[in-house]
Amino acid sequence: MKKLRYVSSYNDRHGKRRWRFRRTGYPPYSFRSPVGTKDFEREYAACMAADPPAIGIDRTKVGSVSDVIARYYSDNNFTDLRPITQTVYRGVLERFRSAFGDDPMSRFDAERIARLMNSMRHKPAAAARLRKLLTQLFIIARRAKLVPHHFDPVKDTKAPKIVSDGYHRWTEEELSLFEAANPVGTKPRLAFALLLYGAQRSGDVRFMTHDIIAAGRIDLSQSKTSNAVDVPIVEPLREALDAGPLGKVTLLEAKHGGPFTPKGFYGLIKRACKKVGLPHCTAHGLRKSAARRCREAGCNDEEGMAITGHKTVKEYRRYAGDASIADRSDAAMAKVMANLSKKVATATTQVPEGEG
């Protein structure tokens, strides 16, 4: 294996050779995939792209928010997560630390957490994620006896309700407008093509390597769900790949030479959208457009899910949209009216008893 920076091997308790990522200021990470595989490359790329924990966590007050967050970073509940999930969670926790780092964890009772949730009503998804992580922090705090063993204030709170359809699903007109303004051979067009014709999440597109598409297909295990997908590379995507520009390891490469960070990738697509008057369009919305195209083409749920990798029909249909409601209601009403006509016809042909 080519020597990778910050990667070393060791023998586990069963004598099996394992590999780990160790970098100053970062939590250690043990690779799950065999060395030399595509999944191993993706795990390594995610480790390299992760943001380090805040400097100075070794000077925190015992029992403070910063102290509990630092303990969580070293706990199996965090280190066993996939690198991409660690990065997302770390971003949430570091924002929480910057606001409340010196506060004792014991001061976050149910009333205070409820006020915090209410202050985040404009960001319900972010509030729900923070609440989920607060549950983990209190598990750590109780175990370390930093709060009373029965202290579990999160269970008495509720995150704001999410009342949104999520990211905008691009229309065909919007897709055409973007393609016209960003010809093949540009990085925004390559990213666009991978998202739309590959139908994968941004987190997977950012770490796609040359090996993943070596067989003329997108062959990967999705980072969020571990679902395996094997999607053919269609002609529009092949044209974009042939025109590039391609990175040395990952297909899409940031200015520094490594994979894009989530923020950097979002900005790449968002800037290109704004230039053509599509500020409401995002990278994630392209995956929804891919699912919509599957539905409009007459694909059944299983066929569409084989491309997008969704685990449930409900989630797939949420992405694909359900424009067939009117068709189903028309069909249902047609059956109702046909049944009524049948009853009327039967009644008029029946001869009353005693006549004839």
SSE order, one letter for each helix or strand: EEEHHHHHHHHHEEHHHHHH
How many independent structural domains? 2
Strand content: 5-15%
Query: What number is the mean pLDDT?
Result: 87
Shape: globular
Structural class: mainly alpha
SS elements, strand count = 5
Strand order of the largest sheet: 1-2-3
What does it look like?
The chain is mainly α and 356 residues long. It folds into 2 domains: 7-156, no CATH class; 172-320, hpI Integrase, Chain A. It has 15 helices and 5 strands. It has helices at residues 38-49, 65-73, 76-79, 83-100, 110-119, 124-143, 172-181, 187-198, 202-205, 235-243, 262-275, 283-296, 301-308, 313-320, 325-349; strands at 7-11, 17-21, 29-30, 217-221, 228-232. The strands form 2 sheets. It has a 3-stranded antiparallel sheet with strand order 1-2-3, with no helix packed on it. It has a two-stranded antiparallel sheet with strand order 4-5. Helix 8 (187-198) crosses helix 12 (283-296). The protein is globular.
